[in-house]
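Review this fold:
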Amino acid sequence: MANPVAQSIRVRGGVVDRGAAVTSLILQEGGVCGVRIGSEEIRSAHVILAAHWAPAKKLLNDAFGPQKWNERMLTLPTTPAATLQMDLEARPSTA
């Protein structure tokens, strides 16, 4: 993640943990509401997944499986030079 983006997140009270090995995404009502790093859960209204393509693809596939919105993305070949950054928001409560 570029330093200016990370700094902008920190200024707004967010946490940037570069190098953390996210083991899974936490889902709630079909949206991402956090991440797991080993046995630790970190929940947030916004999650930015910034990772090399192969681990990002695995996290997304494990969390959502093939869906219409990610079908083409999950079939892209992996390369060591490609990265993916996604802002994953929890879906608003319908209650």
